[in-house]
């Protein structure tokens, strides 16, 4: 499984919090998720004033008639497309687009895609989606998403996506590829 994927920056953090002695086995035995471990790591960085720059993009969505049901509410499956649109906008702004990844001989399939709905999106509105890169030491790309009402700023939905790296033979890479490590250094977002 994921044992060992977050040991570098998180080693010992859980132990200081009283949930174990910081070893991978104890963290996972006590049921801490990868997201919880990453959150602890980020909190410890903020406490030590070692925060990183935030890489994010905000894009206005145009709700098409084909995306809504008979009540004028966006069908839940459309949110995956909105997240994809945000990932493409992020890639274009920060030079992490799918063609660059493909030219490096790699694929980045989604392995986790989460949505949390607060209220519906309706036809005729123009919500905004913000995608934010989540630094990690693991060989994966993690993004958080927030969709807000374009006029009021009210939160509509949130989510997260996780992508892993596969080589040309479609084998999972356990360490980050060289181009991705270089990209993280360029933007000062090493995990």
Supply database-style keywords.
7 helices, 5-stranded antiparallel sheet, disordered N terminus, alpha+beta, 191 residues, elongated
Question: Short summary of the structure?
Answer:
This protein has helices at residues 7-10, 13-16, 24-29, 34-47, 78-94, 98-103, 178-186, and strands at 56-60, 110-117, 128-134, 140-148, 155-164. By secondary structure, it is an alpha+beta fold.
Explain what the structure shows:
There is one protein chain. This protein is 31% helix and 20% strand. By secondary structure, the chain is α+β, with helices and mostly antiparallel strands. Strands 1-3-4-5-2 form a 5-stranded antiparallel β-sheet, covered by helices on one side. A hairpin with a 5-residue loop joins β3 and β4 (140-148). The chain is elongated, with a radius of gyration of 18 Å.
């Amino acid at each position: 499984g994921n044992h060992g994927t977050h040991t570098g920056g998180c080693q010992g953090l859980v132990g200081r919090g009283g949930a174990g002695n910081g070893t991978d086995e104890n963290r996972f035995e006590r049921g801490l998720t990868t997201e919880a471990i990453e959150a602890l790591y980020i909190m410890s960085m903020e406490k030590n004033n070692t925060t990183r720059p935030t890489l994010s993009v905000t894009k206005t969505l145009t709700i098409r008639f084909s995306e809504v049901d008979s009540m004028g509410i966006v069908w839940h499956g459309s949110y995956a497309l909105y997240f994809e649109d945000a990932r493409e906008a992020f890639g274009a702004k920060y030079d992490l687009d799918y063609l660059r990844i493909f030219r490096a001989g790699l694929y980045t399939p989604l392995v986790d895609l989460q949505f949390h709905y607060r209220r519906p999106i309706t036809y005729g509105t123009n919500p905004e989606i913000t995608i934010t890169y989540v630094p990690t030491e693991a060989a994966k790309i993690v993004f958080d998403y927030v969709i807000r009402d374009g006029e009021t700023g009210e939160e509509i939905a949130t989510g997260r996506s996780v992508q892993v790296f596969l080589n040309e033979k479609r084998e999972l890479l356990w360490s980050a590829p060289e181009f991705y490590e270089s990209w993280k250094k360029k933007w000062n977002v090493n995990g």
